[in-house]
Structures are given as C-alpha cells and as structure tokens.
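Supplementary Methods S3. Complex input for the glutamine-bound model.
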Amino acid sequence: MQGGSRSHAFPAGMVLGYPRLGRRRELTAALTAHAQGRLSVAELRAEADAIRSAARERLVQLGLQPADSSIPESFSLVDHVVDAAVAVGAIPRRFGEAIDPGGDASTASLMLARGTENAPPLNTAAWFGSLYRHFVPEIGPTTRFMLNAQQFVRDLSESRAAGYTTRPVIVGPVTLLRLSTADAGAPVGFNPLSRLADVVPVYAELLAKLRHAGAEWVQLDEPALVGEGVSERTLAAAQSAYTALGAAAGRPHLFVATAYGSIGDALAALAPTRVEAIGVDLVSGELPSRLDNLTRARVAEKTIVAGVIDGGNVWRGDLARALEVAADVRRLTRSVAVSTSSSLIHVPHDVANEPELDARVARWLAFADQKVEQVAVVARGLALGSAAVASELRAASAALGDRTSAPGVRDAAVRERVATVTAETRTRVPYTERRDVQRTTLGLPPLPTSTIGAFPQTDEIRAARARYSSGIDSAEKYVSAMKQAIADIIAVQEHLGLDVLVHGEAERADMVTFFTENLEGFELTRNGWVQTTAGDCVRPAILWGDVSRLRPITVAWTRYAQSLTRKPLKGMLTGPATLLSLSFVRDDQPLADTAEQIALVLRDEIADLERAGLQIVQVDEPALAERLASGSSDLGSDWAVRAFVLATAGARPQTQVHAHVCTSDPGAVAAAIARLDADVTGFEAGRAGTQGIEGLRAAGRAERDVSPGVYDVRSPRIPAVTEIEERLAAALEVVGADRLWVSPDCGLSARTYAEATPALGNLVEAAQRVRARL
Ligand code: GLN
Ligand code: ZN
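Predicted complex, serialized as structure tokens:
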C-alpha cells in the first residue's frame, strides 16, 4: 500500500481508552494537591501531561504504533463526559458568570466537578453499569452551545509535538445528550436530546479543528446506542447526527465506538452514514444475527472494530476464542480491526504491579497493559493467521485450563450448601409478627434516632490502620487502638443521646476490603486501583473462587462495642450486591450463583452476631438502587434482591434487620422494599430535600419502618434543628410516627467530628421536639 493511503487505514489493533490514574495514582495526588491549593491549574496540567506521556510510551512498548492513530487520546482531568460538555459549551445556568464558556477548559471542568461557592457540583451517575461515575451535564432549551476545543486540541498537539499521532476520544453527541439531565428551569418533560440539531454543528466544528491540528482519526464514544432500553428516538438521533457529521467538511476519519452490550439496531442506524469505522462490543455483546441486504452492503464498506478483549474485567480469558470471534467479523467486512470491548478505565494498570499477589491467580489475570498485549496478539493472528501467534494462544489456554481446575475455584462444601437452600430458607416469619416482638424487646421511643454506621475516620484511626497493615504495629497494638476508637465513638453517641448505637467502622478502610480479607475465594491487590470519579478510586477485590467464611468477620468488634453500652447496638454488614459490585467478579459462572454463596456467608455472620447478643443488624446495599434503576423489572428473580433475602432471612424474629440502600430517591426502590423483607429500610432523602417526599410516600406503602435520612452527609454543612424538624414533619405527612426513624443520610466517614457532633446533636434535639408534639 502507498504511504499516502496507508496513513488513512485504521490501525489493526487498538484500545478504546486507557487508565487515567497513572501507575502510582499520580492523578489522585495531583487533583488533591490542586484542591488544597498546592498546585495551580497549569501545574496540574503539567502533571496530567506527565501521565499522558508515560501512557503513550507504555502503549508503544506494549505493541501499539506511535503514528497510526492506534493510541487513544483518552485522558481526562476529571471526567470524559464533563470534557465533552465543556467542549460544546454546555455550562448549566446555575453556575452563572463563574464559568466562562470560552475560558480555560480545564478550569471549567474542575469547577463543574467540584462546584463553586454558589453552585454545588454536577451530580454523578454510574457509567453504563460500571464502577465509574460520570458527571451529569445539565442542558436546557436555552443552553447556548458554542465550541471550546482547547482541551482536545491541546492534548492532540502536545502528543504531535512529542512525535505521536494519537486519536482523540470524545463522548459523542447522542450519548452526551442522553446522559444529561434537564437544566434547572427547563419546562417539565424537557428532553436534552431535543437539542441534538443544535449541538451537532458544534461537534462538526470540533472535528474540523482536530483535523486541522493533525488528527487522522477521531473516536466518538456512543455507548448510549446499545443495551436493552435503547429507543427508536435515540437510534434516529444517532442516524441524523452521524449523517450530518459524516457529511461535514474538513473532518478527520470517524470511528463511532459502542460498548457495554450488543450493538443491535444501532448498526443498521449507523450503516447509511459516512462514518468510516464502527466499534462493537463482542464480549458482553454480539453482532446482530440478521441484517437486511442494504445494511449488509453498507457495513461491508466500513471498518468494524471488533471489541474482543474484555475491557470491563480482569481475566486473561480465552485468547484463541477472541481471535475466532474477530475473524468471524470478516463475514461482514474485509476491514476488521481488533480492540477492547470498552475503554480500559475499568481495570488497573498492570498485573506486574502486584508482586504480592498469589502467583497462580496472577497468571489468570490481565490488567490494562496485559490487555493491550492481547489486542496486539489477536491483531497479529488476524493478519497473519493463528499459527503466527500459536505460542501466545497456547499460553493463554494453559492459564485458562489451570484456572478451571485449581483448588478453591469449585468448593464442594460451598456448592452442597447452596444446593440445600429451599423456599423456607428464604422466608422469615411474617413481618407484622416480627414487628410486635421487636417492639417489645427493643423498647425504643417513637422516631428512634440512629446513624448509618461509620463515624469520622480521623487521622489517628487511619494512621493506626496503616501502621498495622504495613507491619509496623503488632496485632495487639492495633486491636487496642481500635478498641479505644470504638470506646470513644460509643461515648460520643451516649453523650448525644442517640437511641440505637453503632461501633463506628474504624477498622474499615472501605465497605468491602474488610469483608473480603476474611473470605475464601477473594484475592486483594496492592495497586489495583480503578477510577470511580476524577481522582477517586477503589481497589476492587478479585473474586476468583467459591466463597466461604474463614472466620467470623465483624463479631469481635461488634461484641466489644455492645459490651460498652446498655443501648441496642446495630451490627453492620455489607450486602451481597455491594460486595460484588466492588469486586472483579468471576466470569465462569452466573453472578446470581456467586451472590448466593456470599449471601450464605452473611447469613452465618448474622447468626454469630445474634449469638453475641446483638438485636439489630444493618445490611448496606448502596449497589442495589443502581441495579434496580438500570432496569431489572422482575424483582422476584433479580439476583441482588434474592441474595439480600437469603442473607437476612435466617435472622430470628426478634432481630431487627435494617436495609440501608443509600439512594436519595426512596421511590427508586419502593417496589423492592416489601421483597427485601427488611424491618427498616434506610435512604438518603436528606440530599433531595423535601422533593423526596413522593418517593417516600411510595416507599411507605410497603408498610415497613423507614429511615429516610434527614441531612446530607456529603456536605460539611451543619443542619439546623428547625431544618431537621421540617424534614421530619414532611416525612410524617406520608409515614406514621410509629414507623419513622431519624438518621443522617449515610455514614460519617468523610466528616470531621467538628461537623458530625453538632449535626447529630441537632438531629437528636429535632427528634425530641417532634416527639414532644406527637
Ligand atoms: N455503613 C456504611 C457507612 O456508614 C454505609 C455506607 C454506604 O451506604 N455507602 O459508611
Ligand atoms: Zn448510604
């Protein structure tokens, strides 16, 4: 092929996006330093450029080419959705003059993500069922779209100057609008997608600018075009947007990437447009089984980017199969490129960063860097035939075989136990009966006051945990530090006059690690960080085998805390769906099966807590509302609901089970409440203000106790007594006083005592005042 046309060819292998944190979480450190005023925006950008430059070099080492557009320009300072919003000028009205749409794009993104003095930050929402949370742009009928190409042009040019021709990656117009919410003041029923025709010309301008700056290919991410609930309207929007962008003058080649599910009808919608390449997820999705002749003919002229390497999970997987799947795409077009199924932001940087990981488990894994190598292997196999990569395929198959037969992957005892579960195992005595027993034994006042679990994680607590986990402190020293923390926390609660106490979760760095450390079947990493939002990240556990409990997990701390008070203490567990959502799950069996194993572990833990004298247990399931919101309509068969029930149904009638489901919209889980069959269900309605009342009304219909959450714990603001009274009064309009609990929205780990103590004091006082008026 001639040099000229060669430069237009799509790279044979590439990834849709690469982790942005940096191998040592440089992004987290830089964003924190900037937030604390230790770094200017310019210095922050310099840190970001260092991360980008290291990523480029690494990707070339791993087999991508510096100049063929195979390297994605997928870095983002805070979030890729915010970047797209800033690029098209979608600044919510409520930010007023604080953000200049034509000003510095990095500054604008940071302000939208962090908020300003007068404007709270944009909300966040789960990005296509993953742990990553994107910011939610606010778009209204009067949003004035205008181009701010700075950030995208700058990154591209910086790479060009360093000798790389990279491929800018931008959230596409349809996905941007689908992920946006109506700007405050928009008329009821306003749909941001109605602004498509106004935003597309701005994208056209952006594309032209990028072409001018040297981009040969631009990737437009359109994951909103796939999945169960994609509407005709969305598909029509995609067709019209890409027809327009395809016809725009002076543009680079266009690669529209879908991900997170089967492309379905979106393929036929994109086929008639002039985009040159379409990305399909062939890991969690597949190609449409039939295509009409016209679509077929049109697709044959495009490049299909076959996402055959799993971007959403950490398994090394079946490489030979990935090659077969990629080769199968040739029945649609001769031009097939190999890629990941999604961006690699969902996996950590590198398995080689994990010297302490069990060597056998490590061989089964592929993090981002290993996946890039896998893409390169499959691309080579596709070009030269599988014989050319025979040894790589063999090594991958051997690892897969080892994983199938390794001890612990299937544990006969665990499997037998799951097999004995019956309908009875899943049923408690009827709620009303339990409720009467609990009323008598607990003897709580109306509107009982409590908290959701965690107390402030002070520097002392963090330091004690760190000294212990790095081996500096002995177990005895650690235990006595934690006991001291618990004693302090109990004393604070006694002093405040709360009715139901908690032990405060000092021993937990997060909701999951503390549990998984004590479970068979999980491995923990040292550096396996995955971005959640901006600089925030989590280290998911790797769930590789059947799950059983090595020992009681929470009992010792909880028993100790209960021994310090005569008030009832609420034990604190993380629920099955949340444990799974914060783990890399196994791909060799349905999630539902894994969830049942975890449920049985929690069931045993609850039984042990009961034996230790606990009368109340809370199971935290923040992951549940997201799951239910993402569309599972049949609650009875939803694995997350079933697992919650299996975990809690063994509790004695006199044990009060609380479900904390974390959502700020009680209506979102209203239908699930009766199914969960918890005695008390808690939310974060405080964040939603009095708007949450309708949702609370719906939740109240389940005839259970509710703990709506009376103030937002995410803000350092201390709520006034009268404000909490108002919230309670509003709640009492829709639920009876005998069923209303009083608590903050969620745990207090991110707060200081200077914030938490007065806030809780006001909470207790408000409850007392309202009680006095009953
Ligand atoms: N018990 C946990 C805490 O207080 C609940 C966390 C959550 O719901 N996200 O921190
Ligand atoms: Zn919560």
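The CA atoms of residues 282 and 308 lie 5 Å apart. Residues 452, 622, 660, 662, 684, 746 surround zinc ion (ligand 2) (CB under 6 Å).
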